Amino acid sequence: PSPSHLSNYKFTVKVTRSTRSHVFLGFCTPSRDLRTYVGGDSHGWGCIGTGALWHGRQKVREGYGATWGEGDVVTCYLRDGDIGYEVNGVDYGIAFEHVGKKERRLQPAIGLYQKDDEVKVVEYDDRKEGKWNEDEWEGTIRAVLE
After folding, report:
1. Whether this model's pTM surpasses 0.90
2. Of 8, 56, 59, 65, whose CB count within 10 A is highest?
3. 7 — phi, psi (to 5°)?
């Protein structure tokens, strides 16, 4: 999904394969650099499974929430302009404040850093067009590096 304007949105993935927890989840603008990870430029805000928050190619915070990796279910949400995360049903609160108020065109983003890392999108909800779950829309994303 890539809505052009988001104010309240969430997506949930199950990490089906990850040896080092180097999976990034977050939001970005359409101007993001596809050659880098989520948060690897000034157009993205991302959390990696090791618990670090990234924006502008800088680690802006360590120790956010719980670390997560293979087998975990992670939700990334945009709520009233703020980005936050849930891991296995536990909400760790706001990770990035006022992003959606400054940037009007945000899109959900998933970045896989290690070869063969894999996530399965199990749910996404934009609160405008309804809610989809894994029975209706199934998407598995795998990193293939050369």
Report:
1. no
2. 65
3. -120, -40
